[in-house]
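This section describes the prediction task in plain terms. A model, or a person checking by hand, is given the sequence of a single protein chain and must write out its three-dimensional structure as a string of tokens. No templates, partner chains or ligands are provided. The sample shown here is typical of the held-out split.
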Amino acid sequence: HMHLKRMVEAVKEGVWRGGGVPFEFNTIAICDGLAMGHIGMKYSLPSRELIANSIEAMAEAHRLDGLVLLTNCDKITPGMLMAAARLNIPSILITGGPMGSGRWRNRKTGILTVVEAVGEVLGRRLSIEELTELERIACPTCGSCNGLFTANTMACLSEALGIALPYTATIPAYYSSRISLARKAGEQIVKLVNRNLTPSAIMTREAFENAIIVDMALGGSTNTVLHLPAIAEELGVEISIDLFDEISRRVPHLANLIGSGGEMDMEDFHRAGGVPALMSELKTLLHLDALTVTFKTVGENIADAKILDYNVIKPIDKPLKSEGGIAILKGSLAPQGSVVKASAVSERAKVFIGPAVVFNGQDEALKAIEAGRIEKGSVIVIRYEGMMGGPGMQEMLIPTALIYGMGLSDEIALVTDGRFSGATRGPCVGHVSPEAYEGGPIALVENGDEIEINIPRRMLNLNVDRGTLEERKRKWKRPEKKLKGFLAEYVTVKRSKSQVKS
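The expected answer:
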């Protein structure tokens, strides 16, 4: 993200031009790529609240009139939007933009290529020397990841919410137009302050519905099911997981992008017309009168937008899939729901029934996967990785990427009360609720139990009789967790909020 400093200077130039006085401050910014595979990932999702709180503190302490939120990574974007919503002062979000893809053996490369290549090495489909060669050229420029993973999904949804200028999400990090956009954002925030157009007037319920519609058409990251409701809650807007599923059933998947089961990168998406072109194709489904930071409505913003490459964005009458990218599954294993990126699951794996192989944490599972101890047809269960049990609900990209790289993504499923990276693909079901630490059914699963995943029917079932489960529940004890510092505070706050809601 070395280019962000230049973007900051451009934003400040824009503020001066508009007649304002800019002040620069920063917040923390955890990189999920560096936090992966160790205890650091437990801090990733909780950092979202830390970011929101730190921005709130600075803005309130110094009585700022408005905010330009410069972001580019997974939890930073939602954390900043939560702060903007909570403060409700004029705000505009701008991202650093996606990186360009590398090229290796006539295919596009990025961070996902490297992580999955580790699985290829384990499966003896690639040598260590080839992996090293790939690693050196996979990510050739600055910017967020090259595919539709969490960072770029949230950037796209920021446009859909109306809190970011058009093309904010897709202009590549190394384009000169990215600097021009930053300057324009600086000019625009002064106008927003002068007219007192606040986030509550922009991020309405209709705007959140627009964002979910765009999310489904994109085939975006499952992390949006965590982030959009959290942002909405700051504004007093209630967004349930059932709304995601209801919209998913009526919005087709249109974007052929890396991360959503496709092959095109974010630069391809930009050249095809970006978010405005996608929204133009969805115009019969959107709330076109929703207001945006341009002072125009969504309908006015997308009036002249059109798809420039139908290999990247499909027409609505010829979609990639008839339903949206994310599905909410419920059943005896997830009474309160679970989430799967349906767009990244092959047709043959959308119904998956197999015996459970249970692990109390990601580390145990990784050892078994790396050692080749998981048989085809199995359902890996990784539990005690939820919001409370992890704590922090770390993502499971490494196990899912290893499985994919080993060529087993249609042969092995994974179910967890943790979450997934936006880069995860295959029959991987996360956010299982209630989580194991709270005594949910996932805590009662034993090796060999039959688990049924049925995406078309939106089911996630543990095929064990009720009497057996009741007996297991009587014997179950919550594992002790010795926490300290920030994670201990995070769990305490989350638990108290949960108790208030219940």
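For orientation: The first strand starts at residue 67 and ends at 71.
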